[in-house]
Amino acid sequence: MYGGDEVSAIVLDLGSHTCKAGYAGEDAPKTVFPSVVGSIDQLGSDDTVKSEKDSESILESKNGVRPSDSDAAKAKRKLYVGSQALGYRRDHMEVLAPLKDGIVVDWDIVDSIWDHAFRERLLIEPTEHPMLLAEPSSNTLQQRERTAELMFEKYKVPALFLAKNAVLTSFASGRATSLVIDSGGGSTMVVPVHDGHVLQKGVTSSIIGGEFLSQCMLKSLESKGVIIKPRYSFKRKEVRPGEFQTVDLDFPNTTESYKLYSQRVIAGDIKESVCRAPDTPYDESAYANIPTTAYELPDGQTIEIGADRFKIPDILFNPSLVQTIPGMEGFAGSASSIRGLPQMVIESINKCDVDIRRELFSSILLSGGTASMQQLKERLEKDLLEESPQAARVKVLSSGNATERRFSVWIGGSILASLGSFQQMWFSKAEFEEHGSSYIQRKCP
């Protein structure tokens, strides 16, 4: 079909926290950048914007595409994609996420993210490369068709394949049957995979992901009087050689969402640097005198983090802990309905056929950025041994390499797209033109 040697496929995994893209056959993605974008509405601002828009409209009408109303609305907002563009503070810039619970809610943003990945980061022409895209296990038919339309009609790709996240994680570890725990930025999903297919009836999910834990960390520190200053809100001035003083800067037009985004980046780094899952369920009194760990904030102040190092990760196992964090009360009502990780695993396995339960218990795979937290594997295995049936041999597997855990979905895609036997599976442009976008259900089960 697409003789694997001449042109390598591009593997793209757009997660709720980061977008990973690179060439099939490589062992890590070429580029990783945030999957949120900065957006500035340019309504009724000065004439320069107007003249820019006029030239855009002229350009569009030249191509025979008249801007419709939605395009006019789109033309009025400017999107900034990538870590560099987001790292630069701009007045009135909102931070928007294209995905909610793994499902796309804003296609314009997804389009701008793909475009950034192809043209700015990988520096490729999408018309020359087949594309393998990772998709959430609960993706809907409409979403898949929309993806196919955008890829074939806008980017004119020669071929496309959509693969489920959990299946790719399974392939990355060399298994066809496993129970995949995918804990990423936006949510945690437990997905049974059997012979390379997702068993939809066994999928369970929870809204607790990395972003949520970062938010808990932020609120918990604030309640202790630690103010995390975003990087744009101060500058460091040298008073004497080697001695710096922090000067606060004031930007009244910074949006709340950008401020929160900047704080979350720092809170996320604190979480990744000092947190680890506790060996036993978190208990306020037992962890009260725990030794603290120091962390230096960007503005130079050093904070000491004690019990939070264990309490925040334990929310994955015991969601009701959220109620003890000041500022997260709004969530507390729904916390009671959310199950911890071990309960989700047991529930997911129990929804599957009896014949494969044993096999699922013995190959539980951890993937995603949140799952690469220290001690998480050991703690989960311990909890599952206590709660699972006696006959089950529980084995939680996770790659020893943090990079591999974080990018396991992408790596699975990279392995799959470079297999010789996979080359006849692609959904080609010719098939798209003949059968339409609904044919994707046939080609990518």
UniProtKB/TrEMBL annotation:
A GO BP annotation: chromatin organization
Keyword terms: Chromatin regulator, Cytoplasm, Developmental protein, Nucleus
Pfam family, one: Actin
Compositionally biased residues, Basic and acidic residues: 47-56
CDD domains per UniProt: ASKHA_NBD_Arp4_ACTL6-like (cd13395)
Annotated compartments: Cytoplasm; Nucleus
Region called Disordered, residue ranges: 44-70
Role: Involved in several developmental processes including organization of plant organs, flowering time, anther development, flower senescence and fertility, probably by regulating the chromatin structure.
Protein name: Actin-related protein 4
Organism: Thalictrum thalictroides (Rue-anemone)
